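Appendix B: a complete holo record

For completeness, this appendix reproduces one full record from the ligand-bound portion of the collection. The bound molecule is NAP. The inputs are the chain sequence and the ligand SMILES; the output is the full three-dimensional arrangement of the complex, encoded as structure tokens. No fields have been trimmed.
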Amino acid sequence: MIREKFDLTGKTALVTGSARGIGRAIAAAFAEFGARVFVHGVKPSDPLSAALAACQAFNPACESVTGDLGDPAAVEAIFAHLRERDALPDILVANASIQKNIHWSEFDAAEAHHEMEVNFHATLRMFQLAYPKMKEQHWGRLIVVGSVQEMRPHPEMCAYAASKAALENLVRNLARQIAREGITVNDLCPGVFATDRNAAALGNPVYAERVMNAIPMHDYARPEDAAGAALLLASDAGRYITGSTILIDGGLRLPG
Ligand SMILES: NC(=O)c1ccc[n+]([C@@H]2O[C@H](COP(=O)([O-])OP(=O)(O)OC[C@H]3O[C@@H](n4cnc5c(N)ncnc54)[C@H](OP(=O)(O)O)[C@@H]3O)[C@@H](O)[C@H]2O)c1
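The structure of the chain with NAP bound, as generated:
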């Protein structure tokens, strides 16, 4: 039965940056399909509490965890907490990221480093921390949330786009190395989603029109548009998918 292959009962999932936006929709979908989900945000907040409540409505065993992924000690602390709760993830979605719009000629090295720390280095470290359990049980799902900017970099986000391209490369690298261990590694790659991070930019009608005209579907994605693909990659239904990049972009990557 194909429906059963999507079932996540008995699995523990960590979805970083799931207080809001795409991560929140993925976390809720995992909980709906039975996973014990750890939602995550930088610090305790109303959105994080609401995201947790949405997950607990499906599975009361869901919990929250906090920490700034720009701080390597916080990454270790998150995993120490999960270990204490006997909740090291079977499914890890590295969804949180940061970005700033700055012309490349003025991009500050400290900002570029910070974006690489949160978007790439924290992901690599979390994958290292999650790997031993996945290897031992011969089952695991490592998922990065990339960006259409891997293929179509925005002129004012050179560090962010590079960090996402690095993640895509990491996915292909690790997928080859650990495919025989029952662990898949994939890249879920959004186009333009109507989330908090885009609210200000898309509030500018001139910019919004330019963006909309570049999207073949002529519509922004909604956070829940990412949930089905995430569920596929996280479950046994996606058993044979590894090293892949799945675009959820309404065709935005396609040459115009
Ligand atoms: N939205 C888009 O159009 C789009 C397009 C391409 C790719 N993506 C990617 O999709 C993912 C989700 O994007 P989104 O638009 O849903 O994001 P969002 O609405 O801006 O939410 C970001 C989440 O990440 C968390 N976060 C931010 N900085 C963090 C840090 N330093 N340490 C730990 N957590 C941090 C936030 O926590 P708090 O709630 O505590 O602040 C929040 O929960 C990101 O990787 C993004 O790059 C998005």
